[in-house]
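User: My collaborator sent over this chain with a note saying "see what the structure looks like." That's all I know about it. Can you take a look?
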Amino acid sequence: MPPRLNLASAFRALSLRTTPASQQPLLSQKIAAAVPKLPTVSVARRFYSDNLTPENNNNNNDDQVPSSELAPPRSEEEEVVSLSQQQHKEDNLYALNRLELVAYGLKPFDAEEEGHKYGLPSLPLPSELHKDHRYDDVMGQITRLLMKDGKLSKAQRDMAMILNHLRTSPPPKLNPARPLIPGAPAPNFLPLDPVTYLRVAIDSVAPLVKIRGFRGLAGGGRNLEVPAPLAARQRRRTAFVWILDAVQKRKSKGSGRKMFPTRVAEEIIAVVEGRSGVWDKRAQVHKLGTATRANLMNNQIKNFL
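Assistant: Without extra context I'll predict from the sequence alone. Here is the result:
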């Protein structure tokens, strides 16, 4: 049999000589050698219009000549003209700013409003701009009288329902025997302003005095009753407590969270129309105050007062 050929031993006997990688020419070098050299042309790069010179552009070539060296020197007349143009632009901007202030309803030449778009508020600030006095004083006091268990948000929601009921109700029919407080608006205008509606109803039935008792001064251990004047908040508080007592005696027409505000609003309408029993309480307190005013001349009462 003929001997088998071993290719591995045959290739091992060959000696291969390779060229180092550093000596091999790259493809780009071969192409550059084949193409003839062209003359170099310096091309100026583009830049934005707000940059007046190409030096402000970061992509500009380092070997480019700045435009300030290429520009011819400016004469004194040209510099004066350029300064006058710049001043004219500043005057135009100032005039436009004044017109903008006039458009916002401000005084264009007021030094205090300079730099403020809407102007500065006048001091002292009115009470309506304070965060704790945003609402009417009567409405805020009545809202806290409606509050139970510290739930102010529920009381505010009930007050909103009461005012909405007063606003949507028909004009009240006044009773000549029980007139409202002097200066009250006409009944046709009361539903248009429910806050005034509430204020008129409470101030009309608010008592002027309260009966104060002094123990043992009447003899035999009896109390000596003396009338005492009330402040505005005390009068309104007493009147609304009477209104709440009358609301508790009203028959409920249903259930739900709207039922209580509805009954309070109906009682306020009854007060304005003279149908509520709160008027009788007020008359009784005033009658008792008139009867006991002679007790103010007591010497012991004078010492207390």
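A starting point for your reply to your collaborator: The beta strands are 209-214, 224-229.
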